[in-house]
Amino acid sequence: METRTVAVVGGSGYTGIELVRYLLEHPGFRLIAVTSDTDAGKPLAEAYPALLGRTELTYIEHGAIEAMSDLDAVFLAVPHTAAMAIVPRLLARGISVFDLSADFRLKDAAVYEQWYGVPHAAPQLLPCAIYGLPEINRSLLYQRYQERHAARSSTLFSVNLGAPASSGAPASTPAPVLVACPGCYPTASALAIAPALVVGFAAVGPVVINAISGVSGAGRTPKPGTHFCAVNENVNAYGVGTHRHIPEIAQIIAWEAGKQLPVVFTPHLAPMTRGLLATVTLQVKPSVSASALESVYKVAYADEPFVRVLPAGAMPQTASVVGTNNVQVGIKLQEETSTLIASCAIDNLGKGAASQAIQCANIVFGFDETAGLITNPGVV
Amino acid sequence: METRTVAVVGGSGYTGIELVRYLLEHPGFRLIAVTSDTDAGKPLAEAYPALLGRTELTYIEHGAIEAMSDLDAVFLAVPHTAAMAIVPRLLARGISVFDLSADFRLKDAAVYEQWYGVPHAAPQLLPCAIYGLPEINRSLLYQRYQERHAARSSTLFSVNLGAPASSGAPASTPAPVLVACPGCYPTASALAIAPALVVGFAAVGPVVINAISGVSGAGRTPKPGTHFCAVNENVNAYGVGTHRHIPEIAQIIAWEAGKQLPVVFTPHLAPMTRGLLATVTLQVKPSVSASALESVYKVAYADEPFVRVLPAGAMPQTASVVGTNNVQVGIKLQEETSTLIASCAIDNLGKGAASQAIQCANIVFGFDETAGLITNPGVV
Amino acid sequence: METRTVAVVGGSGYTGIELVRYLLEHPGFRLIAVTSDTDAGKPLAEAYPALLGRTELTYIEHGAIEAMSDLDAVFLAVPHTAAMAIVPRLLARGISVFDLSADFRLKDAAVYEQWYGVPHAAPQLLPCAIYGLPEINRSLLYQRYQERHAARSSTLFSVNLGAPASSGAPASTPAPVLVACPGCYPTASALAIAPALVVGFAAVGPVVINAISGVSGAGRTPKPGTHFCAVNENVNAYGVGTHRHIPEIAQIIAWEAGKQLPVVFTPHLAPMTRGLLATVTLQVKPSVSASALESVYKVAYADEPFVRVLPAGAMPQTASVVGTNNVQVGIKLQEETSTLIASCAIDNLGKGAASQAIQCANIVFGFDETAGLITNPGVV
Amino acid sequence: METRTVAVVGGSGYTGIELVRYLLEHPGFRLIAVTSDTDAGKPLAEAYPALLGRTELTYIEHGAIEAMSDLDAVFLAVPHTAAMAIVPRLLARGISVFDLSADFRLKDAAVYEQWYGVPHAAPQLLPCAIYGLPEINRSLLYQRYQERHAARSSTLFSVNLGAPASSGAPASTPAPVLVACPGCYPTASALAIAPALVVGFAAVGPVVINAISGVSGAGRTPKPGTHFCAVNENVNAYGVGTHRHIPEIAQIIAWEAGKQLPVVFTPHLAPMTRGLLATVTLQVKPSVSASALESVYKVAYADEPFVRVLPAGAMPQTASVVGTNNVQVGIKLQEETSTLIASCAIDNLGKGAASQAIQCANIVFGFDETAGLITNPGVV
Predict the structure, then answer these.
(1) Which of B17, B18, B46, B227 would best serve as a mutation to test chain D binding (most D beta carbons within 10 A)?
(2) Which segments of D214-270 are extended strands (E)?
């Protein structure tokens, strides 16, 4: 296996350090730099004492990445808007980018501006960005691998990035790849009902998604809303009608269903560090039976290395997937109303962010899709 | 204010001790006995050290209630099926009963048998039981007070209970009252959307209720599912399609809407001791505006002593009502899909159980509705 | 009962709002103003939604207190160093001050400077400040009440504050009182072993105090160390050898023992919002028996309205006192080593801060010592 | 590396399943059976859904172990007293035993009987059992490896087990090994002060140990004391003077100090699933300096693969070691009283139980000491 050299840009937050955690043990990626403008000069193990003895790396400034000539890929874990300023430069240098921000997830720049409040800085890249949900978009990711493996350079990015990049990237060099890694809520929501939508089981009526997230989803910056005493012994809905994952969920659900479906999304916060549960209520056609649903789910996810469909009647719990890239899905058909209730548990920092990015990178670089992702978290 | 003498039957569980907590400070009810077959002989303050210095009461056996001649009312916090064996005897002795079990909540004995697995033991009492949700059924509760106050004995119970009780209850004695106190999920669900349903705003499509409860809702008996390590850092849906609050929710929603509405109810468990949040998604008629909804909610709850409608856009958190009989409701209209999202926070042991029972009792016995219920819980 | 008019200065933090919580229900104190420079203009119930329906008060700026002519007392919940700048002005206006900061707790200005890093701004007031631990200093507090009640003005403050105040305070006006309310760790530590120290049971060797606090003790300002994800599922010692409660603990223990005793104090943080447990290990004289210890504790606390000594062998839990001014103490003599292990549970925001301040104020103003402090917190 | 075949006897509890978790990924041990009398017939992944996709193993009954001919070692995670009934039979069959119960930890059968309330059933094995704390007893463990590697059979067990075992174990067969794996509190306490004790820094006066454990230490069986609502938002001392780890701590501390030292041990429970912190207060000789202490600790643990001494002034947190076999130690000398405060964080189920047993087994079977123990737990 050829080793690839990678960096994490924005490595002091929860998503960034979760990337580090996985990459330190990855058999194919060699992590050579982790950046943080706020923590530059500080050993990672000082910021996160759990890393004592696990790495000697020290944070460097974002800008130091510019001088690194040997990077194959960057995992980008900076806030939205910051990401779209960095991505074009990295691509122009031939570096693949796995962007964990929201900047390249939405295909429509106008929708981006509507929800994020600023014009998109690199709209020309939106068509090229692959939405990195492998269970849905694996073939797109795999095509990139094939193109790169065949050393047939796609001219896509060099064209879009303009002449200088083009001239600097000879035809025999594989084009870099831009993967827009999904948000945590869209990942869980999409996987909860993908099998039912793809086969056309949905009836009319909105897709109602209620989700519950742990507090790490709100990021590491201390805020009144993440103070222990504000969150502990408390649950609440938040961002109702305004959460920025709404258009992203609508987009992925439309892809799954092959048509626009109305979506109602209500996220909640629960007093736990990690874990995300999305419970989706979907009206299905009256002809859909419980056994048909079960078959469809079993088949859809049979070969997925990270997704488990629970036995009939069982519902997943977040504790079963925390610390992993795993997904557990439970379904129940309420027959008298033809309603499918599908619940999906993920780790918001794992499958909802860092480990999913690495899963995409594994595919793009031709590693086994599970490389570095079979962790051994506590069972209790 | 004339003092009434009361007992708590089944006082060792969480609901029972919460009743005790309120009754110890109640200006109108004098708590003279608390029963528990498992803890009989043990001081309450030994089972619950927080009561040290607050009460000298000692648990007595359930049966000891039989010999008490001076009871005006019993708060009954025994499991379902146990309650319906006790209630007729208490009523026959002229003792009013506030039953916190599920036994007298459903009006249809067949539905009871379907969901609880046993035939109802006292179906003749079902029509007489008042479903004790004061915000919906205050007038029924108040009628009982008026009847009792006027010393015009209702013959209702004496008829139903048969001759012996009838002969033992002279016409000049007020009939006892049976109040079926609502479950925690039905309370929060009903209050979340009552204003919208009552005015006829609902369109077709199921009422989708996702709710999150603290662990005390599962009772005090140690079980694998309530072990700290099973619940901590974990959320999950449970009882999907099988939770016994489903028919109760359907019943109260039908009363509010004036017609049967399909209901989809998915409860979740969160790692906190108390608190319950019900988030209801309801399709409303396209003509319904956000301002109309806000007005309807404000008016509906304007005079309710325990219900607060939050300012537009704000959603309630359970921590704001824990330890009280208070209810906080937030609403949001998603206009493009004509969907009302209404979220309601209560304390599952308070408004969802004990304090609501006392609220009912206050009305029935002519006390101020808030008597004993203005607590001073921690704000942080 | 004559009503006294009070304000909370610094009412947006956890200690301040806990003062508000108690004062809103106090029969003798009328809370007319709550200040916060950061939240001025905002309703208290907006900052703390649990107060919805419990108060209509709105935060005003600290400075607005200056113009209020009718204040009997101020509860001061601003940070240390800020307090000592405000206190002299309030006293000069004849307003009694219950200061919850550390500024007037230490009797030695040099020790203050050593631990707080700045010279004391009002060292002349240190001798006049009463350390407000009623179980130890009740007689001092009560003397102030008697002086005030007798309208025999103490000239203490007028002398110390200089001529203008002196001339403005006629002999017939009671002097204002300055109470330095104890820190949370000193309160629990002092009450854990006061009975043993006062009777002279201590042998040589340091008093070893290990304590565990909930996170609210760290204040409301969001910091990396109070982020939910930093504290949850975690315990650690902190401030070892540097915690500012060390000299305060040494001072109160010396008062109790009648001599300086070496103190080793190690505080820990636990994942809970409220509650503080101090476990003290004390070498006692070999002649001290378990029964002697038990007797001494029982007698010492027999008439204390807020302190309970648990039965032999039982140890207190913080959950039993959270939300109250109560104290629970458990003791155990390890006979083979003549070691007393005494454990004391309090609410760090209650007896460790706000409610203890009110307990002091009750004494100073001649109210029943328990006025407004008999709360009815959840038992579960 | 020669693979060894192992079983976990008693695999349904928290310690047992933690053994399973590590052994499933171990490069040298092949886990072929996991027993549980209560869960026999149930897939492990049904009892612990986090294992879905990680193992297909199904629980078998304890007795089924008797028929297995190819076991090299058993990890025994049954309750005390049950263990000592099983151990002799396993040893007689030539199977090495890593016993996680308390049955073979204490060298003195009389002390065992005093604290566990029953006579020891196999006192003749106590001298042969190695107390499995590698940082203290590595040489004893390694001797067993050497003996086995040299195929020089120790006759120790065959003698002690009587003739039949002796005749069944030919001289050329390595004798089985019995390792008594330490308790969680003794492990953390011993490692906190081993360096100081071994070099003779201790002065007179008791070793005062205050420790805080997560709830998983109380086992998986549901009990009132492990109910979420009993433990959540609560801390308390327990087992004061009666905890069964007291004699074990005294024994290991005496080994470290080379003499009996009085020990005062107070364990506490905190609302977290895993993690254990022991804070030890030790009087040291007045000549001991902070720099001497720091040097001694650094040197003592320099080559330990799992122990980290934090920089001067830093104290460990349990979250940094949860999910691992790691140990973090912080020290502070309070010079004015010549008191060492040493705090040690471990995972009670890891280094405090399961992973430490595997660390011992690695040594005994000649694997790298860290084999299978370098996990990749979450950093946040």
Answers:
(1) B227
(2) 236-237, 263-269
- pLDDT band, residue A167 (cuts 50/70/90): very low
Highest mean pLDDT among A266-280, D134-148, D152-166: A266-280
What pLDDT score was predicted for residue C2? Answer: 86
Q: How many CB atoms sit inside 10 A of residue B167's CB?
A: 9
A273 to D380: CB separation less than 8 angstroms, yes or no: yes
The answer to whether the Cβ–Cβ distance between C232 and A14 falls below 8 Å is: no
For residue A97, the model assigns a pLDDT of 98
Instruction: Give the pair of three-digit tokens for residue D289.
Output: 């300096």
Closest CA of chain B from C186, distance in Å:
22
Query: What is chain B's mean pLDDT, rounded?
Result: 93
Give SS3 for A123.
helix
Closest CA to D139 of D148, D149, D130: D130
Catalytic residues of C: 184
Within an 8 Å CB–CB cutoff, is residue C334 touching chain D? yes
Q: Does D219 touch chain B (CB under 8 A)?
A: no
pLDDT for res D151: 54
Is residue B292 over pLDDT 70? yes
A181 is catalytic: no
Alpha-carbon distance D164 to nearest alpha carbon in chain C (angstroms): 45
Task: Provide mean pLDDT across the span A285-295.
Answer: 97
Closest CA relative to residue D4, chosen from D69, D56, D71: D71
Nearest Cα of chain A lies from the Cα of D239 at a distance, in angstroms, of: 24
User: What pLDDT score was predicted for residue D148?
Assistant: 82
C339 to chain D, any CB pair closer than 8 A? The answer is yes
CA distances from B79 to A173, B182, C190 (A): 72, 14, 45
- In this complex, which of D215, D227, D273 lies closest to B222 when CB atoms are compared? D227
Chain C neighbors of A273, CB-CB under 8 A: 228-229, 232-233
Q: Which of C233, C272, C341 lies at the smallest CB-CB distance from D319?
A: C233
Sign (positive or negative) of CA dihedral A275, A29, A183, A313: negative
**Beta-bridge partner residues of C309:** C329
Q: Which of D181, D184, D344, D360 is catalytic?
A: D184
- Asked if the model's pLDDT at residue D26 lies above 50, the reply is yes
Average pLDDT of D152-173? 44
pLDDT given at position B1: 66
CA distance B229 to B378: 26
Residue B85 confidence (pLDDT): 96
Secondary structure (H, E, C), B215-264: HHHHCCCCCHHHEHHHHCCCCEECCCCCCCHHHHHHHHHHHHHCCCCCEE
Asked if the Cβ–Cβ distance from D315 to C281 is below 8 Å, we say: no
Contact A282, A340 (CB under 8 A): yes
pLDDT band at D313 (very low <50, low <70, confident <90, very high): confident
> What residues in chain C have per-residue pLDDT under 50?
152-171
| pLDDT beyond 60 at D171 | no
Q: Which of D234, D238, D262 sits opposite C318 (nearest CB)?
A: D234
The shortest CB-CB distance from C232 to any of A222, A228, A230 is to: A228
C272 interfaces chain D, CB cutoff of 8 Å: yes
Given this model, what pLDDT does residue A169 score? Answer: 43
Rounded-to-integer distance, Cα B262 and Cα A224, Å: 40
In angstroms, the separation between the Cα of residue D272 and the nearest Cα of chain A is 11
- C121 vs C101: CA distance, rounded Å: 14
Q: B153 falls in which pLDDT band (50, 70, 90)?
A: very low
Beta bridge partners of B227: D227
Where does residue A59 fall: left (phi above 0), alpha (psi -120 to 50 degrees), or beta otherwise?
beta
Counting as contact any 3 or more CB pairs under 8 A, the partners of A are B, C, D
**Closest C-alpha among A83, A94, A65 to residue A157:** A94
